[in-house]
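Suppose you are handed only these lines of text.
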Amino acid sequence: MNDRIKVPRRSFLKTSLVASAALALGHASAQDKLQPVRLGMIGMGNRGGSLLGMLLEFPGVDIRAVCDLLPDRAQNAARRIEQHSGGLAEVYAGSELAWQKLLGRADLDAVIIATPWDWHSRMAVATMRAGKYPGVEVPAAVTLRECWDLVHASEQTGIPCMMLENVCYFQRVLTLLRMVREGAFGDVLHCEAGYQHDCRFLMLDAQGKLTWRGRWSANVNGNLYPTHAIGPVAQWMNINRGDRFVSLVSLSTPARGLKQYAVEKLGADHELARRDYAQGDINTTLLKTANGLTVTLYYNILSPRPYDLILRLQGDKGIYLDTNKSISLEKGGKSADQWEPFEPYQQKYPHPLWQALSADAAKSGGHEGAEYVMFHDFLKAVRNKAPAPQTVYDAATWSAIVPLSIESVAHHGKPVEFPDFTQGKWKKTMPLPVYGA
Ligand SMILES: NC(=O)c1ccc[n+]([C@@H]2O[C@H](COP(=O)([O-])OP(=O)(O)OC[C@H]3O[C@@H](n4cnc5c(N)ncnc54)[C@H](O)[C@@H]3O)[C@@H](O)[C@H]2O)c1
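From them, the structure of the protein bound to nicotinamide-adenine-dinucleotide can be written out as follows.
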């Protein structure tokens, strides 16, 4: 298949850089004058708590309602809001469906969802159907049906849905997007990325029981957390904007890490040390696009290992590799056979969003400031009632790797077709300009 959209790189880049710089630079002076964004938040655990801290720093954000299954978590969030700004957020808690009452409020513009994965899609769908803009944690859905539910709810209500994929906002990831747009790597052909992080400490709770993540690893085998890896890659490769994923195959190694961890933490006689676990320690998924590009994705959270997203970006003129934060580009016809440090390229190709926001982003922390830049985009989209750069089609596509990889692994690496969540619109949608424009 060769119906790839060809974009004249130079003129496209020029327009988009100017536009995004203007928008981004307008942020600091204009934000105070902008209308407040009235927020609700569902899920006030580790992630919800840290997102709350970040959102409290944004001028014009008014958090009016918080919800958690566990009342003390929601009450604690409300206390933090009061201490910070004097605002009195209403608390919804104590039942698995208390969030539905929060969505019934007439005074919310948007809702942040940071609950366990299996709640995301139904909460985001209900948020859109209640007329509010969801910002939903990753992955946005865990079954194909849920992916389609997101797409249909957004199309039917006209309300966008942004998955809060923060790795897309890392400074180097956006610098690389600009470099791709300027042709620094030539044509992108292959990427490799992974969520590789020893997360076994998140699998058992203090009472020696499996957490919700632990239950997933106990019962399911595939790539359960693909979006940090696929998000940047999909944007570099123009997925849903001139190209799309058409199929994948996925295989997992035997499961060792979680059982060994349970033995070490709970003793060999504990029931969690004696049982078997479904999730193979290392899952490898290979995706193909309509234009013939390929992606290798890893999911490796149950092994002793340092954090590494890999983020290998290979074009026909050069390569970037995040593992060693290095780059190698063909220059003047000379082959690229030596690694160079990436830092000078970050200076040479600054991304407009980061140029405008880096001082505030650096103060805010959160994955080196990436969350600050992400919320800047989310809040701007809510104010404009417009899709954020990460659309509902991206949320569905990136999340669909969860069920598709599970299916492929269950059938010994069988190729699985990738649904076209855009229903053909990918052929006519222009690539994202430089992110945030
Ligand atoms: N983007 C990132 O970098 C990043 C990092 C960490 C976690 N996350 C995502 O954030 C989400 C939450 O992860 P976490 O580590 O905070 O988990 P957590 O277990 O610490 O928090 C989840 C919270 O949701 C609450 N909850 C569960 N069911 C609920 C319901 N029906 N209604 C209301 N509240 C409910 C729980 O009581 C808990 O407080 C996950 O989807 C995870 O993938 C993203």
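What can we learn from it? The longest helix spans residues 9-31. Residues 42-48, 67-70, 73, 96, 99, 114-117, 119, 137-138, 166 surround nicotinamide-adenine-dinucleotide (CB under 6 Å).
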